[in-house]
Amino acid sequence: MKSKDNNFHNFVAPILVLVIICFVVTFALAMTYGVTKPIIDKNTLAAANEARAEIMPQADGKFEEVKTDHLVLEKNKVFVDDVYKASNGAGCVITVESSSYGGLLTAMVGIDKDGAITKVKVTNASDTPGVGTRAQEPGHLKQYNGLKKLGNEQIKSDPTVQHVSGASISSEAIHKAVFCALKQYNKMGGVK
């Protein structure tokens, strides 16, 4: 009888304790997620709206989501996340994800009612600081302002804009994001 008790204490009891600990921790994590998710979603939306207002100040900070078929330029590499148009008809802000050196880069592109780019802003990227991030600087991105079309999908073949030496992959990712946003805008027939 002693060997059965020893087996229970040596093998079964620790397993039961671990299962109970895992259950309690999982339950606690699920409860924490349930409490924090709405707060995180609210903060994410507020940050996105703030970025949209910066990209298209003519919109007076009021946007509404456009339900449309989102363009996919390259599967899992360059695609539209969302499209928001200004409530006053000033234009729209298109969020695009594009494959970059450090993974997917997220860029917002403002396009006014006439089809001209108002501003490009990278809102999320994991490129190498000081190297790839040079392509994300406002000084580099402002070259897109006012453009209605790009000369080519590839930045090195496009005479309308310059890439950043040493950050060619990041430059290409941003360029493809802008190209995709303009294509999405034209596919929608502009802002209606």
From TrEMBL:
Please name the GO terms that the record assigns under molecular function.
electron transfer activity; FMN binding
Q: Can you give the residue ranges of the FMN-binding domain?
A: 100-185
Record's keyword annotation contains Cell division: no
Cellular component GO terms, alphabetically? plasma membrane
Keyword Transmembrane helix on entry? yes
The record's SMART domains line, in alphabetical order, gives:
FMN_bind
Which Pfam family, any one, appears in the UniProt record? FMN_bind
Q: Where, if anywhere, are coiled coils annotated? A: none
> Where exactly are the transmembrane stretches of this chain?
12-35
Keywords per UniProt: Electron transport, Flavoprotein, FMN, Membrane, Phosphoprotein, Transmembrane, Transmembrane helix, Transport
Q: Which terms under GO biological process does the entry name? A: electron transport chain
Q: Which InterPro entries match?
A: FMN-bd (IPR007329), Ion_transpt_RnfG/RsxG (IPR010209)
Q: What is this protein called?
A: FMN-binding protein
What is the native source organism of this protein?
Answer: Baileyella intestinalis
